[in-house]
Amino acid sequence: MYGKSPARLVPLLLGLQLTALWPTTAVEIYTSGAVEAMNGTDTRLKCTFSSFAPVGDALTVTWNFRPRDGGPEQFVFYYHVDPFPPMSGRFKDRVVWDGNPERYDVSILLWKLQFDDNGTYTCQVKNPPDVDGLVGTVRLSVVHTVQFSEIYFLALAIGSACALMVIIVIVVVLFQHFRKKRWAERAHKVVEIKSKEEERLNQEKVSVYLEDTD
């Protein structure tokens, strides 16, 4: 009886070891962090994730919203096999699914932004057995006009410098072209003058010869 017990314990110990070696399952969320958009426009709230488990029909995505000035959390969007937009509330007919679960993208598109849309949007993803993990957040700021960040100024400066270089190259090429053309015209005129001078000298020689002959 006791001689058989170690053999029975082998599968159990092996299972415990495999469980210990199995990576901790947790969904990791990635968002754009902070988004600034102009009043009346549309904006995309980006949310992607990573998971050890393959994406299947068990995937669920929940978007919620908390106003900047405080107040209860509000439902924004839900996805499970199919998208389920809100049927009432401030986001009714203003939010659509813009994700692709096969690419681990669960983003949404928010239409016709209003100033009271300012606040924090949360993106929660569950992909069983990966059901734990931090909730992604997107801080939306709706403004009258979009403020240009340093990267926009840098891009503008680089673009202006490139345009200036192109203009300089064009000017140099045109200058060289017209300079060569002018030298060619001058050389042609010199050749013409020499030809006329030689022709005049020849005519004078002929005239002198005829006079001597007479």
Question: Overview of this structure, please?
Answer:
The protein has 214 residues and is of the alpha+beta class. The chain has two domains: 25-144, Immunoglobulin-like, CATH 2.60.40.10; 148-214. The protein has helices spanning 5-21, 150-213; strands at residues 28-31, 34-38, 43-45, 47-50, 60-67, 74-80, 82-84, 95-97, 108-110, 119-126, 136-143. The strands form three sheets. Strands 2-11-10-5-6-7 form a six-stranded mixed sheet, with no helix packed on it. Strands 3-9-8 form a three-stranded antiparallel sheet, with no helix packed on it. A hairpin with a 6-residue loop joins strand 5 (60-67) and strand 6. The longest helix has 64 residues, at 150-213. The termini are far apart. Mean pLDDT is 82; it is low at 1-23.
Q: What attributes characterize this protein structure?
A:
214 residues; 3-stranded antiparallel sheet; single chain; alpha+beta; Immunoglobulin-like; 26% strand; 2 domains; 11 strands
> What is the C-level CATH assignment of the largest domain?
Mainly Beta
**Which strand order spans the largest sheet, edge to edge or round the barrel?**
2-11-10-5-6-7
Mean pLDDT value: 82
Order of helices and strands: HEEEEEEEEEEEH
Give the low-pLDDT segments: 1-23
CATH architecture of the largest domain: Sandwich
What is the CATH topology classification name of the largest domain? Immunoglobulin-like
Strand percent estimate: 25-35%
Number of strands: 11
Shape: rod-shaped
CATH homologous superfamily of the largest domain? Immunoglobulins
Helix content: 25-40%
What is the count of helical runs? 2
User: How many separate domains make up the residues?
Assistant: 2
Largest sheet: 6 strands, mixed
Radius of gyration: 40 Å
How far apart the termini lie comes to 156 Å
Structural class: alpha+beta
Pfam family, one: V-set
Organism: Marmota marmota marmota
Subcellular location: Membrane
Keywords: Disulfide bond, Glycoprotein, Immunoglobulin domain, Membrane, Signal, Transmembrane, Transmembrane helix
